[in-house]
Write a structure and sequence with these properties.
With 208 residues, the chain is an alpha+beta fold. It is built from 6 helices and 9 strands. The termini are far apart. It is found in: Cell envelope. InterPro entries: Redoxin, Thioredoxin-like_sf, Thioredoxin_domain, Thioredoxin_ResA/DsbE_sf. This is TlpA disulfide reductase family protein.
């Protein structure tokens, strides 16, 4: 094999890695700080999602899908696997310290998380597109966010953690709520206030 061939082959893996990262970054750039103001939802043609005028999409109990693997390192360096939270209602929120709507909704998330922490509700953030942890950690300190956030700078968990055609995290900010069985029950693609956030959680607490 010639030297040029060996160099060419050796360079393919890094180029593939860079391409994959580029695709992830582009997808998140397109969806960054987006909102679903007209109340419409995506997810494919043969879904049974119901979307109210507030832009919150829901799935009936018997028609909910499970997430993919949502696990990794948190901003404080611990290991977290969302699957371990089964039995609780789980609120997943995609956010970035650079995102203005994320800053607007953060106090509401911090308050509701504190109010419901003893009611069988767990909050997990998914921090994305922060190239290092420090701005994200400062964000949490500024807004009193005490629940953990998975550190997902390239958006891999957001893009690959949900099966195609489900109520998935898409824009930033966006929020998905899982029922007690770990199934995807509700989604919003916009910043939420306390009232709308509670409206996604409380029906699931009443389910048996």
């Amino acid at each position: 094999m010639s030297l040029s061939s060996r160099v060419s082959r050796a360079g393919r893996a890094p180029r593939r890695t860079l391409l994959a990262v580029g695709v992830l970054s582009a997808a998140l750039t397109l969806s960054a700080c987006s909102g679903d103001s007209n109340g419409k939802s995506g997810g494919g043609g043969n879904t049974n999602f119901v979307t109210n005028t507030g832009g919150i999409s829901t799935a009936a109990k018997g028609e909910r899908a499970a997430t993919g693997k949502l696990a990794g390192e948190t901003l404080d360096g611990k290991r977290l696997d969302v699957a371990d939270l089964k039995g609780k209602v789980v609120v997943l929120n995609a956010w970035g310290s650079w995102c203005s709507p994320c800053r607007a909704e953060a106090p509401h998330f911090a308050k509701v998380a504190e109010d419901l922490k003893d009611e069988g509700v767990a909050f997990v953030g998914i921090n994305t597109r922060d190239p290092n942890k420090q701005p994200a950690i400062a964000f949490e300190e500024d807004y009193g966010v005490t629940y953990p956030s998975l550190y997902d700078p390239q958006g891999k968990l957001i893009l690959f953690g949900f099966p195609k055609g489900t109520l998935s995290l898409q824009g930033i900010p966006s929020t998905v709520v899982l029922d007690k069985e770990g199934k995807i029950a509700a989604r919003s693609l916009m910043a939420l206030n306390e009232e709308k956030l509670r409206s996604m959680i409380e029906p699931l607490l009443k389910e048996k």
